């Protein structure tokens, strides 16, 4: 290897330009490749060179190696910068458009009921959908052989029939009254499960709102006033309201509330209510000599159907965008 050849190699390294990462890899292999790299070969040959020249030539080959490595680093850096440039944010590309969603009519009615009760000092609580027999039935005066269990058939756990999906939100009354001392006024809203015609249209599930109010000297008149306030807030002042005597094991006296909006639809039942039975208060260790209270429960779906004049409850659960979009401006 003479001086001329060395100069040629130096010149080649100096003039090298990489356009692609492939070019760079070829360049690396050509000079530093383990088997056939030019500089690798020269390093191997170094042994054969007479001792007095070895140091000098070794120094030159090392310099050339350094030149090759610098070139490679240089082009790698440029490449990185180029890559970053292509990843850079391009404001001219149109963005992905996001569809604006809307609240489900059941959520809208739920929020409305919440607002109506917030105005008169009710607090909001939620209870579990998976309940035990005591909270859902026994504590509410519905013993094991009571016929009203038939009406509120639900999903029981085969292995433990003590555990079931709650059939009504009245179980929340029990949970709350066990933990808190009266007076209180509370609202609860959530899913309930029943094997019956209305709810079976909607997968055996519907939403219920439950309110209860306990204090000294609470009377049926208070109950009537609050129901009237709720119905008027939801349906306007012109609606007629009727309390029809009824029966629930956990309230005494009990009533169904019907509303009348026009001759076409006539009277429609919208909720159940009553004065909480003293035995229920005893079950949760509230002194029924001092305290009395009322409770009411209603299906949100039924209210939503009436408010929005929807004639088939099943549409509420089909997730049809054409239906849901109609409520976009309504909250
Ligand atoms: N829990 C009753 C039902 O689901 C409704 C109700 C609630 C009735 C509170 C009276 C008082 O049918």
Protein architecture, described:
- It is a single chain.
- This protein is α+β, with helices and mostly antiparallel strands.
- It is 43% helix and 22% strand.
- It has 13 helices and 10 strands.
- The termini are far apart.
- Phenylalanine binds at residues 168, 170, 210, 248, 251, 272-274, 295-297.
| Amino-to-carboxy terminus distance | 88 Å
Give the spatial strand order of the biggest sheet: 1-5-6-10-9-8-7
Characterize the biggest β-sheet. 7 strands, mixed
What is the string of helix and strand elements? HHHHHEEHHEEHEHEHEEEHEHH
Q: How many discrete domains?
A: 2
How many helices? The count is 13
Residues in β-strands, percent: 15-25%
> What's the mean pLDDT score?
91
Given as residue ranges, the uncertain stretches (5+ residues, pLDDT < 50) are: none
CATH superfamily of the largest domain: Bira Bifunctional Protein, Domain 2
Judging by the overall fold, what is the CATH architecture of the largest domain?
Answer: 2-Layer Sandwich
Main CATH class of the largest domain = Alpha Beta
Bound molecules: phenylalanine
Q: What keyword list fits this structure?
A:
single chain, 331 residues, alpha+beta, BirA Bifunctional Protein, domain 2, 2 domains, 7-stranded mixed sheet, 13 helices, 22% strand, binds phenylalanine
